[in-house]
């Protein structure tokens, strides 16, 4: 009969099909009564279907389970054939109905007509396949496969709000991230003064735990053409670095450097920047084992950053800037503040950034 079985995508049914049977002639040579139908049996020998066509669908099955079926033909006289060769089929997995986790820590780095967005990767019971970005009206404005996106065509000097959702292969969509608000800068007129947007990249070295972490972000600066002074907004994205406690114990720590207020300085020849930054340690792990951290685990007081370029600064081409800073003791770190502070607090920490015009 050439019995075939095909499982459904949700694992709850199986389609069976086979070649039609023929009713042989009687012993005296007369024609048989003709095939009247087919009986389908499961592995326990129970008849589960009685059909006239050479196909049927078995429903109500359990996903991820093996089943065995046979088929018998019967004629109009009530004669039943021998069973077909058995066919085995394993139903597929249950349909994925679990949505990914909502994206966290969405960071916006705006320019006059665009914004760069980054966020922490979401998790899913199977796999995250992409992310969707929505504006304040609920309109989808980006669909990406990585945890970053750039929105172009924005209006200068304008407030915007966006959210991000994660999705999986089954089409499940996560809840929205916490809305992130940003303000695009004013369009530069190309003179010495005006609004400038920069990309920021580099690293910071922490002396006490003897390790570094990469840094990325952005700077929007409004420059007074007469005085060459500026004020601006510095954004540094969350990062992760590898460090050593007691000089030899390897730990991996998440770092969040959050500017407290505006960055100020001058662009009179070289670039000078001053800003206070609070440093957070949202995660700390030893050989992958979480030890401490949390959103509230931060330095007691902000660190004063003073950064300077080594020479003349070109607002278009950009330049390197660097400086040193001191870290205060940590607080709100799950009771491990004295231990963590002993290996993180202190001066001699350095920061080196490349500031390049967008």
Automatic annotation (TrEMBL):
An annotated Gene Ontology molecular function: hydrolase activity, acting on glycosyl bonds
SMART domains: FN3 (SM00060)
Gene Ontology biological process terms from the UniProt entry: polysaccharide catabolic process
Record key words, sorted: Carbohydrate metabolism, Glycosidase, Hydrolase, Polysaccharide degradation, Repeat
Keyword Repeat: yes
Residue ranges constituting the Fibronectin type-III domain according to the UniProt record: 1-94, 99-187
Record has Repeat as a keyword: yes
SUPFAM superfamilies: Fibronectin type III (SSF49265)
Pfam family, one: fn3
Residues covered by region (Disordered): 1-34
PANTHER family reported for this sequence: FIBRONECTIN TYPE-III DOMAIN-CONTAINING PROTEIN, TITIN
Protein name stated in the entry: Fibronectin type-III domain-containing protein
Lineage per the UniProt record: Bacteria, Bacillati, Actinomycetota, Actinomycetes, Streptosporangiales
């Amino acid at each position: 009969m050439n019995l075939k079985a095909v499982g459904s995508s949700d694992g709850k049914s199986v389609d069976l099909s086979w070649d039609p049977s023929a009713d042989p002639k009687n012993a005296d040579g007369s024609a048989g009564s003709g095939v009247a139908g087919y009986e389908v049996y499961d592995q326990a020998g129970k008849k589960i279907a009685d059909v006239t066509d050479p196909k049927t669908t078995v429903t109500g099955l359990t996903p991820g389970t093996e089943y065995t079926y046979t088929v018998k033909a019967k004629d109009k006289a009530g004669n039943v054939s021998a069973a077909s060769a058995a066919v085995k089929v394993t139903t597929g997995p249950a349909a994925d109905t679990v949505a990914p986790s909502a994206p966290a820590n969405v960071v916006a780095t705006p320019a006059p007509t665009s914004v760069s967005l980054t966020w922490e990767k979401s998790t899913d019971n199977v796999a995250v396949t992409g992310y969707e970005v929505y504006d304040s009206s609920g309109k989808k404005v980006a669909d990406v496969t990585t945890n970053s996106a750039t929105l172009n065509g924005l209006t200068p000097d304008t407030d915007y709000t966006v959210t991000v959702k994660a999705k999986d292969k089954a089409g499940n969509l996560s809840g929205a991230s916490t809305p992130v608000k940003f303000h695009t800068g004013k369009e530069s007129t190309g003179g010495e003064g005006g609004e400038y947007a920069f990309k920021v990249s580099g690293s910071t070295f922490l002396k006490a735990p003897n390790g570094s972490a990469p840094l990325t972000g952005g700077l929007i600066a409004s420059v007074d053409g007469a005085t060459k002074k500026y004020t601006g907004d510095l954004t540094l994205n969350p990062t992760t670095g590898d460090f050593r406690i007691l000089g030899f114990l390897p730990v991996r720590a998440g770092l969040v450097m959050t500017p407290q207020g505006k960055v100020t300085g001058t662009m009179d020849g070289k670039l000078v920047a001053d800003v206070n930054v609070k440093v957070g340690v949202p995660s700390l792990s030893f050989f992958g084992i979480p030890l401490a951290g949390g959103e509230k685990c931060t330095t007691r007081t902000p660190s004063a950053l003073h950064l300077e370029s080594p020479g003349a600064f070109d607002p278009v081409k950009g330049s390197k800037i660097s400086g040193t800073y001191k870290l205060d003791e940590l607080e709100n770190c799950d009771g491990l503040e004295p231990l963590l502070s002993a290996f993180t607090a202190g001066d001699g920490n350095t920061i080196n950034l490349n500031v390049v015009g967008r």
